[in-house]
Specification:
Elements: H1 8-24, H2 32-43, H3 46-49, H4 52-88, H5 95-102, H6 105-134, H7 143-159, H8 162-191, H9 204-210, H10 219-229, H11 231-238, H12 243-246, H13 254-283, H14 302-309, H15 315-347, H16 365-371, H17 386-393, H18 398-432, H19 448-462, H20 476-483, H21 485-500, H22 513-525, E1 527-530, E2 536-538
Antiparallel strand pairs: 1-2
Keywords: Amino-acid transport, Membrane, Transmembrane, Transmembrane helix, Transport
Main location: membrane
Organism: Fusarium albosuccineum
């Protein structure tokens, strides 16, 4: 088949990036074990351990469970499309670079910078959270000491090679998984009457105070509004499903490992969250006053509340320790994601070329440096209470939800871009006569899954802060945190649209030939993967 024309600007940038990668580029040191655990570590954190109590209090056990289930199916759609398109073109920067190639460069640039700043501002938030959690045991040590230790640790970890980063995430993810399994089993024991107090709960709290809470209004309307209010926190919990695609060329045999890891990760996370929310709803009533207490430590975890009520006192320290490592892990992951996003932007000409420079470990150190530029803000905790500064960045109960709103809406915009990019990719294949049977991975029920996920994500974004438009419920904080990222993204898109002067590619112009040619060459030559960044590794 005749080769289709690619965007000239993009092609030049890819050639430059390929040369860079071949000389001082990223190293493909991430195995299947690393990829799976990186994804798990990135998706299990404060949203489950601490934030789930707020979700239960808002919608009740059944309402919260429905929100997580529905959002789980939406996430599955994103996971499937991400897996298919990444298997076809695995590149560092993932969906951001795919938007440049298959839609329009301005969309890739706007999405990349929007995603980058969100990850960068999250770094000091996570470090501040870790410092706050440490104070659960010791308040006499200046928080600046802990902040320095944590910052040096996660920056050094990211500078020492992607394999070491991957191994650290294996450890962090293992701790989280063991804690979740332990809490689920422990919660089930409490529910069945095996706690020291011997009280059997069963489905008591589903009857009194009830399975559903109401919000704003009474009756069915209030129950639905409470359920929808939890969609954003649920999306926050699933939010990093695309992290496995960001690593791109740093993964061994990414055409196989990335789609497999994406699917496996979704199923595992769905089961973990479904069981966790279900068990929490059995052992804690949604009107329990302890759910409204904001401490920033394990004391606000619904699991800790339930264990405390049952006479088990050792759990808070265990939960606090794992959540502290979770915050450190999340900070490290934010550096990794932000730096690879910046690397990808540079490869496509949307950021200076200097961010492609790598050290001898294959790490883009300039990209890491810029990604950490906002991290010193966390030292405000030296002069202020760490909980106060933490709440400037993230929400513990009320303020935690502000952070959830900002970062989740930014992440959901990324999901919208992923689905739009996939639909263009799908249409381009159909227009140019390519068969999906020739793809390394073909996701099921397409393009219907992509369309359904796109519509649902758009609904969640546009109605994320619906309550601020209800009389008596308006708050400036709610309006800003739910919708501030929409104009930011729009401005970024317009700026890059004007700067690049590019138009949306026609389906006949999308460069699919290069991807299928690389796949064919790999089959014929016996190589695992030929990246557009110039990295090849033989079997």
């Amino acid at each position: 088949m005749e080769k289709q024309h690619s965007n000239p600007n993009t092609s030049a940038d890819v050639e430059m990036c390929g040369e860079s990668a071949e000389v001082n580029g990223l190293k493909r040191d991430l195995s299947s074990r690393h990829i799976n655990m990186i994804a798990l570590a990135g998706m299990i954190g404060t949203g489950l351990f601490l934030g789930s109590g707020n979700v239960i209090a808002t919608a009740g056990p059944a309402g919260a469970l429905l929100a997580y289930t529905l959002m789980g199916f939406v996430t599955a759609g994103v996971a499937y499309t991400t897996g298919e398109i990444t298997a076809f073109m695995p590149e560092t920067g993932g969906f951001i670079r795919h938007a440049t190639r298959f839609v329009v460069p301005a969309l890739g640039a706007a999405t990349g910078w929007n995603f980058w700043y969100t990850m960068s501002i999250t770094i000091p938030a996570e470090i501040s959270a870790a410092a706050t959690l440490i104070q659960f045991w010791n308040t006499s040590i200046n928080p600046g000491v802990w902040i320095t230790i944590f910052l040096v640790f996660i920056i050094a970890l990211n500078l020492c090679g992607v394999r070491l980063y991957g191994e650290s995430e294996v450890v962090f993810a293992s701790l989280k998984i063991m804690l979740i399994i332990g809490l689920i089993i422990g919660g089930l024991v409490i529910d069945l009457g095996g706690a020291p107090n011997g009280e059997r709960l069963g489905f008591r709290y589903w009857s009194n105070p009830g399975a559903f809470n109401t919000y704003i209004k009474d009756g069915s309307a209030g129950r639905f509004l409470a359920f929808w209010k939890c969609m954003l926190p649920a999306a926050f919990s699933y939010g990093n499903i695309q992290i496995v695609a960001i690593s791109g060329s740093e993964t061994r045999d990414p055409r196989k490992l990335i789609p497999a890891a994406t699917k496996k990760t979704f199923y595992r996370i769905f089961v973990f969250y479904f069981l966790s929310i279900f068990i929490v709803g059995l052992i804690v009533a949604y009107d329990d006053p302890a759910l409204d207490v904001s401490t920033g430590t394990a004391q606000q975890s619904p699991f800790v509340i339930a264990f405390h009520r049952s006479g088990v006192s050792v759990v808070p320290s265990i939960v606090n320790a794992v959540v502290c490592t979770s915050a450190i892990s999340s900070g490290s992951a934010c550096i990794f994601i932000a730096s690879r996003t910046l690397f990808g932007l540079s490869c496509d000409g949307h950021a200076p070329k200097i961010f492609q420079r790598c050290n001898r470990f294959g790490v883009p150190y300039y990209a890491i440096g810029l990604s950490c530029i906002l991290s010193p803000l966390v030292y405000l905790t030296v002069a202020n209470n760490t909980s106060t500064v933490f709440m400037w960045f993230v929400n513990i109960t009320t303020v935690f939800m502000w952070f959830v709103n900002i970062t989740t809406v930014a992440g959901l915009i990324g999901w919208v871009v992923i689905q739009i990019t996939y639909l263009r990719f799908y249409a381009g294949m159909k227009k140019q006569g390519y068969s999906r049977e020739d793809l390394p991975y073909k996701s099921p029920l397409q393009p219907y899954v992509a369309w359904a996920s796109l519509v649902m994500v758009c609904l969640v974004i546009f109605f994320a802060g619906y309550d601020v438009f209800v009389k008596g419920h308006f708050t400036a904080e709610g309006l800003i945190t739910c919708y501030v990222d929409l104009p930011i993204f729009a401005v970024l898109y317009l700026v890059f649209k004007i700067r690049l002067g590019s138009r949306i590619l026609k389906t006949s112009e999308i460069d699919l030939h290069r991807g299928f040619l690389a796949i064919q060459e790999e089959k014929e030559s016996g190589t695992e993967f030929r990246s557009s960044e110039g990295v090849i590794e033989a079997k």
